[in-house]
Specification:
By secondary structure, this protein is mostly helical. About 70% of the residues lie in helices and about 5% in strands.
């Protein structure tokens, strides 16, 4: 699970910055869709990238403004790391899988 170590936080900050293509400090649905298409589904399945970006937006965008702030992003990760159980694992596992490639890139 996630912890509060500086290395993990730095990795998530880098991940956020990588996804934030226009560098406005917020993640938009099209930025999520793009990074998922090129990183996770390798551009082969735009419907999957669309589905994943919609699910991520639903889960992370707590104020429903169609943008994910850095705080929402980090809080979403913290929430899932502390509340994760089998039911939630089934529900959100594909979201974690979608970020797994990017997370591994951060560690390198």
């Amino acid at each position: 699970m996630l912890n509060n170590s500086a290395g993990v936080l730095l990795c998530f900050l880098r991940l956020f910055e990588t996804i934030d293509n226009n560098k406005d400090g917020q993640l938009e649905r099209n930025e999520l869709r793009f990074i998922l298409a090129v990183s996770f589904v390798e551009g082969k399945d735009n419907q999957l990238a669309e589905m994943l970006s919609n699910q991520i937006m639903e889960e992370y965008d707590v104020n429903h403004d169609e943008k994910i702030t850095l705080d929402e992003f980090l809080n979403g990760l913290r929430k899932w790391s502390t509340e994760l159980n089998q039911e939630k694992l089934n529900r959100v596992s594909f979201i974690f899988k979608s970020f797994s490639v990017l997370f591994l890139l951060c560690l390198n």
